[in-house]
Design a protein that fits this description.
486 residues, alpha/beta, Aldehyde Dehydrogenase, Chain A, domain 1, 2 domains, seven-stranded mixed β-sheet, six-stranded mixed β-sheet, 17 helices, 23 strands
């Protein structure tokens, strides 16, 4: 049985306690590895290693050398592409067609993109007058924040972990990563890459474990951690805030969402269906930016529902390596139970089930997996938990609307504010409506289209702060002012 160990100070180590937990393939339920379960000893060792690296070779390293190393990390991930692909797909069950186009290449690219960004971002300077006429010069210095705790999610494990590790290292920080207990493979594998390209020991550390009462909580409470970045559920985010409060630790959160899509009367229906199919069902609906609420102009409602139904029913479920597979399982049995509970709520509340609503009949080899059907509903009131609560599964509810103001009000009627998509061929309408959406990211005639130089994050209960481009530097680096009297 394969064992996945912690990566601390450049070495793979087992837990001092000897405890392990199972890593299961969500497609068939089989145990694929035993994972070392950390405790306070591993957390302390990783944080100490990270602090030592800050004071040592990494902290003294010239920027150009640091950026070269990060480029090498990206190149080495791509050179070992098939290994990372297999590790990611075995942990998540997602089709290779998705992971090979999104997870692995984007995960690698995060190192190059942020290295190049930091290399080219200027700081400000000002000349000020003084009473003696000589003046003074003020200029800003950008410095690393310190040791960053990276608490990563399971839905896009490599991509969203490196989305944080990339800018953190580019800014000169060191990191301690707590990957999801559901998806430990690629975070551990990345340690090999760090060693292969010559990243100094202690710069990148990984400790495996759980959240509350385990590694996650220990990291967030650790006195020598200087910042915490987290992607995951809003409830978990509130717990991390409480844990971080005594030390006044800076936080960067991307949290839950209940994202809406609006299809206006003049929408190009081919575009709207293609984008809505991906936003509702990609990665089995396990995407923070996914769409679970769709509002469609009444004149196009029947057409949209019919075409989305046909698209959902054409998805092909199966093993990640099989040709033509476009739909994988949910991450765990616990999450499957959660999603199915919402399927049952919808049925109990009288929803019209357009398609799906249950567990598919899978081949014998996959029946123990965490499969659910892609599901579409109509007919529920906006007060239903199915419409107001994040499900994080392959499902959406579709409701008709009659005018623009109604659509905006419906889409914004949520405590979340992560993303939305507008589908319209009317440029004036797009520019008028987009600024009114109470979200961090509004797409027009697209979904999941990301320029990594732009700000990314959520409004309301969907997050704190912004990642991407120079905006992420507000968290991963601190500015100091130097004032020189001339």
């Amino acid at each position: 049985m394969k064992q996945i160990k912690h990566f601390i100070n450049g070495e793979y180590v087992e837990s001092a306690s000897g405890r392990t937990f199972e890593d299961r393939n969500p497609a068939n339920g089989e145990v694929i590895a035993l994972v070392s379960e950390g405790d306070r000893r591993e957390v302390d060792a990783a944080v100490e290693a990270a602090n030592t690296a800050l004071r040592g070779e990494w902290g003294r390293m010239a920027m150009e050398q640091r950026m070269t190393l990060l480029h090498r990390v990206a190149d080495r991930i791509n050179e070992r592409f098939d290994e990372f692909l297999a590790a990611e797909c075995l942990d998540t069950g997602k089709p290779a067609s998705m992971a090979s186009h999104v997870d692995i290449p984007r995960g690698a690219a995060n190192f190059k993109i942020f290295a190049d960004l930091v290399r080219n971002v200027p700081t400000e300077s000002f000349h000020m007058d003084t009473p003696d006429g000589a003046g003074a010069l003020n200029y800003a210095v950008r410095k690393p924040r310190g040791v960053i705790a990276v608490i990563a999610p399971w839905n896009l494990p490599l991509l969203l972990m490196t989305w944080k590790v990339g800018p953190a290292l580019a800014c000169g920080n060191t990191v301690v990563v707590k990957p999801s207990e559901e998806t430990p493979h690629t975070a551990a594998l990345l340690g090999e890459v760090m060693n292969e390209v010559g990243v100094p020991k202690g710069v990148y550390n990984v400790v495996h474990g759980f959240g509350g009462g385990s590694v996650g909580e220990m990291l967030t409470q650790h006195d020598d951690v200087d910042g915490i970045t987290f992607t995951g559920e809003t409830v978990t985010g509130t717990h991390i805030m409480k844990a971080a409060a005594p030390g006044l630790k800076p936080l960067s959160f991307e949290l839950g969402g209940k994202n809406a899509g609006i299809v206006f009367a003049d929408a190009d229906m081919d575009k709207a269906i293609e984008g809505s199919m991906r936003s509702a069902f990609a990665n089995c609906g396990q995407v923070c930016l996914g769409t679970e609420r769709l509002y469609v102009h009444r004149s196009r409602f029947d057409e949209f529902v019919d075409r989305l139904k046909k698209g959902a029913e054409a998805l092909t479920m199966g093993w990640w390596q099989d040709d033509g597979v476009s739909f994988g399982p949910l991450i765990s049995r616990v999450h499957q139970d959660k999603v199915l509970s919402y399927y049952e709520k919808a049925r109990a509340e009288g929803a019209e089930i357009i398609t799906g609503g249950g567990v598919p009949d899978m081949p014998e080899a996959l029946r123990a997996g965490n499969w659910v059907q892609p599901t579409i509903w109509t007919g529920l009131p906006e007060t239903s938990p199915v419409i107001s609560e994040e499900i994080f599964g392959p499902c959406c509810h579709i409701r008709p609307f009659d005018d623009e103001d109604e659509a905006i009000a419906l889409a914004n009627d949520t405590p979340y504010g992560l993303a939305t998509s507008l589908w319209t061929e009317n440029l004036t309408q797009a520019h008028r409506v987009a600024p009114q959406m109470e979200v961090g990211l509004c797409w027009v005639n697209s979904w999941f289209l990301r320029d990594l130089r732009t700000p990314f994050g959520g409004s309301k209960r969907s997050g704190i702060g912004r990642e991407g481009g120079v905006h992420g530097l507000e968290f991963y680096a601190e500015l100091s002012n130097v004032c020189i009297k001339l």
